[in-house]
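Dear colleagues,

For the upcoming journal club I promised to circulate an example of a predicted protein-ligand complex. I picked one with pyridoxal-5'-phosphate because it came up in last month's discussion. The inputs are reproduced below in full, followed by the predicted structure.
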Amino acid sequence: MTDSASARSRQTRIVHPEFETAPGFESFSTPVMRASTVVFPDLAAVRSADWRNDAQWRYGLHATPTSATLMQHLAQIEGGKHALLQPSGLSAISNVYFALVKAGDDVLIPDNVYSPNREHGNWLAHDFGVSVRYYDPMIGAGIAQLIRPNTRLIWIEAPGSVTMEVPDVPAIAAAARARKVVTAIDNTYSAGLAFRPLEHGVDISVQALTKYQSGGSDLLMGATITADEALHQELKRARMRMGIGVSVDDCSLVLRSLPSMKARFEAHDRSALALAHWLKARPEISAMLHPAFPDCPGHAEFTRDFTGAGGLFSVVFHERYSPAQIDAFVEALELFAIGWSWGGAHSLAMPYDVASMRSTSQWPHRGTLVRFYVGLEDEADLRADIERAMQAALG
Ligand SMILES: *Cc1c(COP(=O)(O)O)cnc(C)c1O
């Protein structure tokens, strides 16, 4: 202890302890480094601090070594250079809008988009003077005809999170690049493992880390991943201005789950495929909306661009069943819970009234759609559960 330190009161020494943190200690976990205030070595460091420089620590809201480690992992998974963490997947979507779009700009959104993204677009159109138009997700290179001089941003989702169409991402991205329009893809479905959009010309990949990255159905987080430096700075500035940050405790939970993500994703994929093959042959089902099946629009694009599917797929029940009967089927399931947020160990099922969710493109099916998320339960038990619920509710 220095002389000045030993002269201080016990209380002051509790606030300013003199010790070296755990010399010689090593483990596999990323230390949880919490901070609001980040302490600068001197005033020169304060005055030369630059928010653009990711290597400088400035404020706990922006990053600590814990969140920075997670950002690095996420950028690596998708072959990007930068990631920014947000308190939810939806917040990552919102940050893209706030960073890039201003009054007078035009935004294109696929008609099968994740509903809260549509809600956000409608809000900007209604209250903020932004033009928002919806396009047929299967438009491909035809998107070029929709681009206007003031088009700033094109959203892509692959596949659509309820109806599962897989768009021609490279074609949309190329048309956008030719007109200097930024593209952002909601890539939550693939976790960045089965599809790498930055390699297909997309500018921003959005992940809801709430799903596979967390894997525990117990936290919310989102991220944007980019390769372009200027775009990263635009997203970073919007995040900073809005005062958005994440808890490093949550970051440490995601870091804990990341090493097992690929193994979990592959297990979900195997079970979901097996279950989908079995369901496809059932007389109750009129269409199998799993991108690995030819029934699913974008099957060819999926086969070309994706290396796997994970646990999510939808089915359309035969139109002879009323929506009330399908509700009864979903409620009769015991192993499939009723809930929105997938990506964890537990299976889920949810019916959707798709026709009411569309504005421009035609929905070709008349029967009710049910989206399944296949968890990590034994696949034979899940099949038996579905069979029993079908017997109980559909006769
Ligand atoms: C869950 C989800 C989101 C939003 O994530 P939250 O963390 O729940 O806000 C966004 N897009 C897709 C495709 C999702 O499945």
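Two points we might discuss: The mean pLDDT is 96. The first strand starts at residue 82 and ends at 86.

See you all on Thursday,
B. R.
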